[in-house]
């Protein structure tokens, strides 16, 4: 799992400044191995930055996604974000619809799906499984 300093170094390499808000956002993701809604990030970060706006949080979350420090998905009609799994390479996730906890799926179903797409050029894909984790059942 990535740590805050590694993430901040990647930001610097991409030309982004280190800010206290970005550092705090990354700290939140490093300590939780799950998808988190932007409103939850806002609640937690407002303890340290009372004047921070929802727009500021969203801008930072999308920027962190663009530089591939975070990945996003949609749960319950709302964008959720989590720290990228940099060491695992290509993989997919089971996502708990109650707590947001994730479990990596080490195989890719595209290998068998591509057999049915003869003549098509697949440029990218996303595969997620949703349900309840053992703790939430």
UniProtKB/TrEMBL annotation:
PANTHER family: FERRIC UPTAKE REGULATION PROTEIN (PTHR33202:SF1), ZINC UPTAKE REGULATION PROTEIN (PTHR33202). GO terms for cellular component: cytoplasm. Zn(2+) binds at residues 96, 99, 133, 136. Its cofactor is Mn(2+); Fe(2+); Zn(2+). The gene is zur. GO terms for molecular function: DNA-binding transcription factor activity; transcription cis-regulatory region binding; zinc ion binding. SUPFAM superfamilies: Winged helix' DNA-binding domain. This is Zinc-specific metallo-regulatory protein. Fe cation binds at residues 90, 125. InterPro entries: FUR, Fur_C, WH-like_DNA-bd_sf, WH_DNA-bd_sf. One of its GO terms (biological process) is regulation of secondary metabolite biosynthetic process. Coiled coil: none annotated. Keywords: Cytoplasm, DNA-binding, Iron, Metal-binding, Repressor, Transcription, Transcription regulation, Zinc.
């Amino acid at each position: 799992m990535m740590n805050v300093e590694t993430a901040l170094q990647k930001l610097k390499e991409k030309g982004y400044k280190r800010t206290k808000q970005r550092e705090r956002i990354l700290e939140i993701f490093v300590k939780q191995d799950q998808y988190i809604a932007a409103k939850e990030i806002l609640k937690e970060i407002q303890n340290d930055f009372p004047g921070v706006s929802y727009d500021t949080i969203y801008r930072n979350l999308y920027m962190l996604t663009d530089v591939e420090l975070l990945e996003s998905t949609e749960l319950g009609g709302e964008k959720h974000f989590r720290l990228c799994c940099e060491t695992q390479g290509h993989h997919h996730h089971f996502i708990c619809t109650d707590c947001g906890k994730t479990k990596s799926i080490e195989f890719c179903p595209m290998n068998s799906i591509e057999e049915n797409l003869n003549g098509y050029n697949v440029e990218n894909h996303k595969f997620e499984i949703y349900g309840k984790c053992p703790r939430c059942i």
